[in-house]
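quick one, 242 residues, struct below
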Amino acid sequence: MTSTTLHDRALIRLSGEDVRGFLQGLVTNDVSGGLPVWAALLTPQGKALFDFLIWADGDDILIDCEAEAADALAKRLTLYRLRRAITIARDEQLAVHWAPEGEQGVPDPRLADLGRRWLAPAGKGEGADAAWRAHRLSFGVAEGRAELGDGETLWLECNAAELNGVSFAKGCYVGQENTARMNWRQKVNRRIVVVPIADADEKRQRIAYPDLDWSVEHRRVESIDADAAPMWMREGLVATGS
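---
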């Protein structure tokens, strides 16, 4: 049986005093209700530093993030912890799992078409990372620092509103002011898009996947072909004038 483990993902466990309240004042999405949700930790200017999924595990919180960024994210969260009685550390006992369909797990909170996701001990085999990347990019969904940027891209330019990665009804969080202002003004001038390699613009390219024939780019909305964009993105392009 093919392994469902995503080895490129890691889990950070937060346990202790009111971990939901702690994250609620930091991340872009509402963590006071049902989980998982997709969210980000931003710069004060509203640019994405880390994106991740947030899960509940009893009173604890588990952050499902890219493995290469896990230590940096844990360190950043620790800086915000101050004197709260909260433990922040990688959980090596569990892993992130994915399947394109089936009944195990829950639908990806960004887009149901992305498949099913769950947390469990790691399985044997090389894992599902390559299949997950191909599946995700085929639906035009970008994630991680290589694709979204490392403190370079405004969160709404990462299609956060369209992919359920931001709450405009929750209280303040880091980067909230600029994010809310952009939404109110409907001024998202650029977006992260996934386009075929044949249509690539090297000046706008973040990363290319020649084996998959995809290029991930940061383009001005007027340079995005709305008819070729994924269905979930089209309404946002119309709202911002593309």
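The first strand starts at residue 9 and ends at 16.
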